[in-house]
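Researcher: Here's the sequence for the chain we discussed earlier.
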Amino acid sequence: MDRMKLSIYIHIPFCKKKCRYCDFLSFEAEEDLRKRYVEGLLEEIRLQALSYRHMEADTLFFGGGTPSCISAELLGTVMEEIRKNFSISPDAEISMEVNPGTADLDKLEKYRKMGINRLSIGAQSMQPEELKLLGRIHGREEFLECYKAARKAGFANISIDLMSALPGQTWNSFYPTLQEVVSLQPEHLSVYSLIIEEGTPFFEKYGDKEGAALLPSEEEDRKIYHETYRFLKQSGYHRYELSNYAKPGLECKHNLGYWSGKNYVGFGLGAASMVEGVRWKNTVSMEAYLAGEAKREEEHRLTLQERMEEYMFLGLRKTKGVSVSGFFELFGTDMDVIYGPWIEKMKKNDLLCGTKYLALTTRGQDLANYVMAGFLQD
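Model: Thanks. This is the structure I predict for it:
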């Protein structure tokens, strides 16, 4: 009998310097704290692994923060502990986020030897003034060096992260970044529009009416989005999620798992999990975490209604959409019985389409939040 599949996420909260737009749980730290944190991670993995003996991990993801800012040796101990305590699929996708300026050829070769087979490199931009504005620790040349080193180290599956709709940006100023990155032929691209998050330096500068006027207009933001799609499609990449593009067969399996309602368990500070209908997250207190108190917070068993809602609004992020028959298999009722009037209204307004799969139209992608909100029942 096949084991139930599981995705594993490992949170490394450290970075060399926090970017001006970032609201993730990440911060600078000395080597001693990094070592103590990894010891806490190893303990948490050992203690929790027994709960997942009936599952097989087919994706692992080291995220952050900047996982590549800790030593390869420390990261290797985490990888070794996971392999000791979990059943890992022979063809598992094992991804790691890397920032230029934190990983040289020696480090990248060590990552490859320990079994990491997919890198996600945070470029964000190829323009010096934009990188400086974002507060990135690297320049264009450092990114190119990192990418070339990754290829030399043997990585055949590389994703590059870019940000669009930056202050003062237009499609014409974003296009050269996109063009240069595509010339490198990565297997995957994530292109996210900038979101101004509370508690960040960007919020202080752009969070009010006066600051917002410095950002691209909604029309320009949408132009960047649609022109990006057209250019990447012509370049051999297909969009499989609202902000993610891949060459055929090289979609990020780990992220697809999130959008498809797959079981996932997170290890580390503030890491989130959702296993067999129960969602929780770890403590965000480093003091508590290092004391061996990963402590499940906000633990909640999803109701049937909540599971249906998540199936719809997470699944609609995928350009393929949500499976109508899959909905029936999971919940024992037709999608139309639950959401019929809203689906009909959205189809009439050219926001949703499809019969076997329900998906956002091009117009629906521009109004995705509005469409998805309709699947949240009162």
